[in-house]
Amino acid sequence: MYPKNYKYSQEHEWVLLEGQTATVGITDYAQHSLGDVVFVELPKPGAKFSAGGVLGTVESVKAVSEIYSPISLEVTEVNAVLANAPEKINQDPHGAAWLLKGRATNPSEMAGLMDATAYEAFVAEKEKEEHA
Amino acid sequence: MSQPHAHPMSKATRHVSINERLLFEQSAPGKRGMELPPCDVPAVDAIEALGAEFSRGPVEHFPEVSEIEVVRHFTRLSTWNYAIDLGMYPLGSCTMKYNPRVNEFVARLEGLATEHPLQPVELSQGCLRILRTLEEVLEEVTGMDAVTLQPCAGAQGEYAGIAMIRAYLADRGNPRKKVLVPDSAHGTNPATAVTAGYEVVNIRSDASGRIDMAHLAEYATEDVAALMVTNPNTVGIFEQDIARAAEILHARGALLYMDGANMNALAGVARPGDFGVDVMHMNLHKTFSTPHGGGGPGAGPVAVKKHLEPFLPLPVLVEKAGGALGWDAHRPKSIGRLRAFSGNFGVLVRALAYALAYGPGMVEATRDAVLNANYLRKKLEDVYELPFRQPCMHEVVFSDARQKKHGVNTMDIAKRLIDYGFHPYTTAFPLIVPGALMIEPTESESRQELDLFVEAMRSIAAEAAETPELVKSAPHSTRVGRLDEVGAARKPVLRWTPGE
Amino acid sequence: MRYLPKSDAERRALLAELGLSSMDQLFDSIPAACRLERPLEVPGPFSEKEIIDYFRARAGENAADHTSFLGAGVYNHLRSVTADALLQRGEFLTSYTPYQAEISQGTLQAIFEFQTLMCQLTGQEVANASMYDGSTATAEAALMAVRISGRQRLVVSRALHPEYRQVVDTYAAHLGLVVAEVPFDARTGQTDLAALGSSLDAATAAVVLQSPNFLGALENVPQAAELTHASGALLVTAIAEAVSLGSVRPPAEADIVAMETQSLGLAPSFGGPFAGVIATRERYVRHMPGRLAGQTTDAQGRRGFVLTLATREQHIRREKATSNICTNQALCALAVTMHLALLGKEGLREMAAQNLAKARYALAELEKLPGVRRAFTAPFFNEVTVEFPASVRMINQHLLREKIIGPLPLGPYFPEQTKRGLLCVTETHSRGDVDRLVTATARALEAMGRGARAAVPAEAER
Fold first, then answer.
1. ipTM of the shown complex
2. Nearest residue in chain A measured CA to CA from B489
3. A86 touches chain B (CB under 8 A)
């Protein structure tokens, strides 16, 4: 379910670091708890964020979630497809519906994120809480 | 003797609902629904009078329909709505009570509806006297010292109240930074605090649904300007420690703001001015029965204690020597003007008509409202989960915890109520109760109507256990089923355009 | 009490079900110190007849028997009794905000029609389901521009309605926004575009002007928009007299239009309730405050309408909402929709044309009096600033004796303009009404002239 080469934040974002380039998205768990996504608001290329900064928002009909930057980065590209097809986030959150790419400005922060196994355990715990 | 009810759905029977297209789809060139008297002065050519660059031709695609078509159009549309005039409308926190027709009549009187807000004040004494009398009624009902009738709705009243707190604190040297808002609050509270330039700090409720006083004591720092509290709160429970909350805040130089959305539980029984509130707003479209009209207009008067009076919004109604009324617009400490002219006058007329009908007997309405809510609580507590056990005030909050086991949630139950001939209660609010069913019957329901509602709710609870799909796919009797809200939000269509 | 549907026996029965013996026990959760232990001291109770008598008496203390030439944001126009009869159907009057779409399709379809009508009138692409009034719509439009641009400064025309301006100031003050003012041109009465150009800077979020403006002058919206856009700011255009849109070109170049719809079917009602509206471009819709109805379908493909894009609003986004507005002016917006449906394309054009004709007739007749002239040169709709040879306040005192409420004195708003008044003439004024105004003004000027000649100078000015 959760790609092994990604790292995950407690706020349910994923990040893939290839060289200096980070690709960021939201996780399957996040899209599922949000429901049908109707709108995504993303920053402009050139915008700089530190880890934990608010990159943008994802909206369903009745809820708005902020997207937090999992690591510090400078935005180089946003996924233009999402503007007209926000439903892609529900369909392929770990693939075609990546949110943005950026230049990682402090790659050492990757160490503070969860790997797929740890994130799966984290999510399992969350789900248990919800059904309690 | 009351009619026996063979079937729990005895309130409603299906009947034909006539279809009706949009106005624009019925339009045909040359038709019209209103004629003007002939022009008795020389006609002018618009292009000549205004210049070509300032003039326009006929408004493109504007409707062209006859009078009878307009009458049928809106009459047909009206039949697609539920309304208080049709039956119980138990929306929690909304106080959907009877809207007396005499209020509509007097608001339309020549000499009231016809008056211009900028006409000479000596020719407006009747209007001003109405406003002054309503101020006096509201001062007495709230136990506060002064009232402004300027705010157009509760949210604008909140804004005025918080802005006054800010001005008061700034006048004393420091406007401070934060406003405390309980997690059970209505969404306008945090939105208002931000609009008035404050940061919002949420404080939690305790296990009984009330503000956690220890938490409040901890959070009420020197940075805090005010606590915004709804009383009775949104779970329908009186905040018993309200006077103590006021003491804590006052000791630290902060003020107590009360959201008076739920005054229907207090009018004639208890007065916020007597339990430490510094400033509050009321919703006249709730407690004082002015019609909701599909979303408005309302009126959100704000009542203050003496120390906040200099900060009231402009203009302030004043009584001059000799008893004449007038406006005072020169008040250096005022928070300024909230809207052009002088409040939603027509709404204020209706509110005063309501108050005059009851007089001191307003307390009877309050008692009946609380009686009705507690009766529903009693009659439903064995089938719906009651998160807070104590007796309620004017509204009762259940949760869908028991029905959830069958995959049925509060929204499903609400939608199923429609099939039984009732408007749904408030769903999924307050946020502190997961799957909330928030029910406010108001004083306007007879025992028969309450019993029909009880039957409906009990029947739905049984359906939720036995035939959950029936509930989950409700409503089944309306002209449209559940609508695609996701599609509406993804590709918004917000106006008609030709060729659709 | 006639509004309460219970007998005392029924009350006792319900109390018994709760195990209670008195109504007072229902309030046991309220501490004694918080309770009111005496009856409220308020007037009433009144029967229906007494209520009507009370309000008739108050109505008699107002100006119903006067002919008024006031406008300035509140206008007298013809309204059909048909609209009001429809408006009083209980299904419209006594329904709540249409959150439950399946049993609110009547209100929702009407809102969708209102939004469409507002777009057609203003030349914009989206319009909301109402704001409180024109003044708060203007303030909210300015705040919307602040959100879109990320800038913190507003430039406001001095010819914006002074009360609208005060509302903008109130909302701006608490958010720490800077409000700068640009003057109007003393000759044309329009916003001074040269001054506007030099006032714009990289911090400016919005330019706010009104057309027709408070002085009656139509603004040059295309030029103002060009200047505004060159600095990266948004143009907010307020419209207080919406009937003008029946003959005046809409402000299509504006980024946000904030309009008062009172003149489209709502009674003056001493200043409210009215309905404001914000109209804008599609790309700004998610920054817009207020409710929106959108078209969609149900599972069977039937057309229906829902409240949509609600994530902008306070009940979802709470402290991050675009506005704290909740209750709006829905019934007023519905009245406007009904009125415009009746008036229609041709009725609106004709009403606007009559306003143009009557205002011009009145001006021409007044200008026949010595010393009376039009104050500004810009084109106007149904309001025009007129300069008199004496204080307008004094002239109006004379007019009141003939049961005429004269032009609005501009002195209280612009201290240098005590001899100027804002005259509003609509299709509701007959030629006879205008002729009476002119004759009475002539008599007033004559009497004041005689008084001035007869009296010592010090007294003449009083």
1. 0.96
2. A38
3. yes
